[in-house]
Write the C-alpha cells for this entry.
Amino acid sequence: MLGEFEYLLLTAAARLGDEAYGAAIRREVEEATVRRCSIGALYTTLDRLETKGLLKTWMGDATPQRGGRPKRMVRVTAKGVQAATAFYNAVMLVSRGVPWEAERVAIQP
Amino acid sequence: MTHFCWWLVDLLSRMLEPGERDAVRGDLAESGLSGGQALRDVLGLVVRRQVALWQGWQPWLALGGLVIPLGVLLTLVSRRTADENAVYLWLYANNWTWTYITSAGFRAELFGNGAGIVISWIALMCWSWSGGLLLGYLSRRTTWSNAAFLSFGLLLGALVHPPPFIESLFLPHHHRFGADPNGAVFAVTFYRVIFPLIVQYVLVLLPLLLGMRQGLRTAVLPFSLRTILWTSAIASLASLVTQNSLWWQIRTWQAYHLRLPRLPSLHLVAAAGPIGYMILTAIFRWSRGRTTAMTADPSLKENS
C-alpha cells in the first residue's frame, strides 16, 4: 500500500499529465496540502516510486525561466495508476460515514 | 546574505548527481524561493542522498578499512611533525639574534634544521594527497561524507589527548617521566594547540581534499599517467606506514617473532611521486589545450 505522500505525488503527476515535472508537482502538492513540500522529500519519493515501477522519469527540455536547466519529467505507469486507485478506494471505503465526509462533499467544486 | 545563501546552494548542489543537480537548480530558479529557503531545501536533499548511500556495506568497509586507519595515522603523524617542528620554531623565535647569521656553523645548522622541517612538511602533504587520491577513487559516491569524517577526525586529534598506548607509539616525547625538557615550548598555547591545527589543516586536510578531487577524475586520464599516479601514491602510502615509529615499534616488540627487514628511506619516493605526477599532469593538460586550440584555429598550427 502506498504512503500518504507517495499518493499525493502520484496523483499530482497524473493530474498534470504531459506537464508533470518536479517543480509543477511540488506546486500541486503545496496547493492541496497548504504546507511546504521540500525538494528533498519530493525527489527522494520520486526515486522510490520509480524504483517500485509506479512512475518513470526522464530529463526534459531546458527553459529560460529555469536558467537554461532541464526539467525532470514524470509519467505515471499503469502499475502506478493501479496502486493509486487501490489507495484511493481504501481511503474512500474506510471514510464512509465519518463526520468529515460531509465536509469533503461541501468543498467539492 | 542572500548572495551568500545562493553561493552555499551552488556549493552544496555539487554533491548531487549532475542530472539531479540541474533539475533541482532549475526548480529553485522557477520557484522564486529566497536564498535561505533554497539552502534549506538543497541541504535536506543532500543529507537524504548521503544517508541513502550509507545503507550499503561498501561505504562502511571503506570507512573501517581505509578512512579511519588513514585518518588516525595522518592525525598522529601530523601531530608528531607539528610537535617536533614547534620545538625548533620556539628555539629560533625566542633566541634569535641577527649576529648568528655571521657564524658559518649556525648557518649550516639553520639550513639543516630548516631543510628537515621543509622535507617533513612536503612528506606530510604528499602522504595526505596520496591518501586522498586513494579515497577519492575507491569511495567516489561517499567522498564528501568521508571528507567530513576526516575533517572532524583531524580536529578531534588536535584537541583530544590520545590514549597512553598510542601516545607511546607515535608521540614518545609526550610520554616522559619527570619534567618535560620541552615543557616551556608546549606551555605556550600557540605551539600546543594552534600550530598543530595549522599543520593538520594546511598540510594534511587541504592536500587530502585535493587528492580526493583528483581521485574522482582518474578515470579520464591516459593509461601512462594513471600508472605513474598509482605507483607514486602506493609508494607514498607505504612510506607513511613504514617510515614512522610504528614499524620500528613492531620490530622492537618482536611480538609475532617476525624477522622484519630494515627498510630504506622512502621519503624521497613519497615526495617525488606525487610532485612528479602533478608536473606531468600539468604538462599533459598544457599540450592537450594547445592541441585543441590548433584544431580550432589551423593558423596557430602553421605559425607554430
Summary: The mean pLDDT of chain A is 89. The radius of gyration of chain A is 15 Å. Chain A touches chain B at residues 22-23, 26-27, 38-41, 43-44, 59, 62-63, 65-67, 69-72 (CB under 8 Å).
